[in-house]
Structure prediction request, 747 residues.
Amino acid sequence: MISLRYHNLGSAAPLAMLFTLVSMVFTVAYLKNSFNQSVLEEYRYAEHRALYAAEAGLNEVGVVILPQLVTEDTLLYPSGKDYGNNENGKPIGKYKNIYCHTELEQNSTRKIYYVYSTGEATPTTSFGDKVDPIERTVFMTMQAQGFEDFMYFTNEEKPIGPGNTGTVNFGTNDQLEGRVHTNGDMVFSSYGCPEFSGSVTITNEAVSDGGGIGSWGACDEDVFEQNIDGETVNILDTIATITFPPENSAQLVRANADYVFDAGDMLFRSGKKDTLVMTELNFTESGFWASQWWYNIPPIGGPPNEFDYKWDAVNAALNVSTSGLHFGPDNLFIPGVGYDGTFMILSAFDITGSNIQSTVIGSINSGDVLRVANLGGSKSVAFATTNEPLPIGDDRILIQIDPTSISFTSSSGEGFADNEQVTLVNTSASTGLAEDVEWNNFHYYHDHNDDGSEYCPVGGRHHFDFDYWNAAGLAGQNCDIFSCPDEIYNSDYVYMQKLFYPYSGPTVIYVKGGQVLVRGQVGGQYTVVTDDYTEYRRHDNMSIVDRVWGNIWLIDDIVYADSYPNGAIVHPDDGGTGNVLGLIAGGNVIIANTRPNGARGQLYGSDIKINAAIMAMYGGFISHYWQNTLTGYHDWNDNLSYGYIADGRGGHRNYYRSQDVNGLYTNTNDKRGIVHLWGSIVQQKRGYMLRNYPGPYNASPGAGYDKNYHYDWNLRLHPPPYYPDQVDVNNNVILKMASYGELDNDS
Prediction:
């Protein structure tokens, strides 16, 4: 029993040791698991910190830099920048390698903006040991908000155009589908309310100044309530001012022009009067036709006093080459002296081959001072005549001169070269007005001072009566660009023959130094852009400089080739259209008073259909109402307090009637139908479409058009080529987020 007792007692020690060992194993396993969990939590925490730091880089740096991005690629903080603080006051991580990049959207000329940001955080062990840093990279793409986003945008809700009464408003029959915005004050009519179907925004700045809504008229806040999915929603909001016109935007469009039609190369030529050039664009499904015409804005001086020739340095005495001229009898150039002679002999034919013998003889008198100069004006000679020009047969003209009056200048010291183009100018020609130009008075074409102290304003009476509109010699025969195009396109006014340009991809057409006429069916993606304005010397007085604004005139329907017969555009939900047209005018976009557009109270046609994104940089979208045909409202000035209301020529147009015949008036009605527009309208000021009672015309139903405006939702998918971006007051592009995501740092 003793031995047994001792045996039992001795067996307890190994058992205790066993339990101890098992307990230690569990403890170690627990501690190891706890340690692993701690490390894992620290690692996961570091991942989150790295992600937060990466997103901070996007927001603090990337979003700020992107709108200002000029270069294609920018890398910021390659070494990193600490971000945030933990409970110990140490950074929770850092962001680095913030990479900003832009590229063109596919099948577009608009940029898409990319920014990538990497965040870095370093986890630690429970012992405080650092392990390898953890990186997370995020990206964001942003798209520029373009002005094509708007159905209707104005910088100022103020009127533009002749005879404006200082008020313009939204009222009855104004139906605006899509986004509407103004930087100014919205004013509502006292005679009815508009209908909005989309968002409406006004500026915070206007509201803070006590405006935003200038007058409610017959409306109230309910005008901004819209039923969406059975719920009443307020569609009015306030945003920051959108800068208009956006700085350098038109310059960017012009710089990327595929075609440039120069309308300014007949201006400011030495020794010659200025001649303006009008460009016409007629779109087709497969391209466009382009032509150019010369014209002058009255008042036009007369008689003609300049003629183009070639210098004849070979012949002498009375012999002269066709289209040539020279001094006689010897036709010699004396170095250091110049020319001498007792007469000048001229061909009866100018450089174009036209026989101008009678014109030259009839426009030069004894004692007149004549000047011959080359194209650049580097060589010129002046002299005085001593008799009337004399015909020599039917192919030459003799002008006797005072030899002592000859004065020659040359920057090179050389005389005229044989066959060098020169211009003969009668500097003493009458400055009176040409008698064969209809309504040839300053006040019918200009509404500013006549002393050269002012320019034609962007909203003034614009100059639309240029001669080719009714072909020379065809007055009274109902001949214009629509009824007898062959006669027009082959007239003496053609500056550039009508040429066809096939469509080959997104196209920018730049009309430099002039106005442009637009019509047709658009097949493709186009933007038409003009200069803001062109300065020219007045024809009747070359010492006075005036301005013609870069207006775009819509002379007939302009629609897409696949649009519906009523002008409606195929909606994106129905497949959409790949066609798009942007019209960017430095001045105004004007619906011309032409027969197809409903002139003379819809006597020959009615309405106009427009598919386009319209932008009037310094003017407005406006009807050509001031050239009206209203009885009693045709005078250039009816002594109304608000000044000019019409240019006085409307009764003589559509069809042409000479000045000595009474115009054809339409009593109190020059309603031309409806503007059916699917597109976008962006303008500096608001142009009038209809003038009626009450107003300066005091006529009912009035002059102009009713409106049927719709937004083209296809513009959100593919804007016109190089159509301007929206910018803020700091000239930064206004961007909207397109996508966000995280990249795999292990790939």
User: Anything to note?
Assistant: Residues 39-145+734-743 form one domain. The chain has three domains: 39-145+734-743, 150-298+438-716, 306-426. Confidence is low (pLDDT under 50) at residues 1-7, 636-643. The first strand starts at residue 73 and ends at 76.
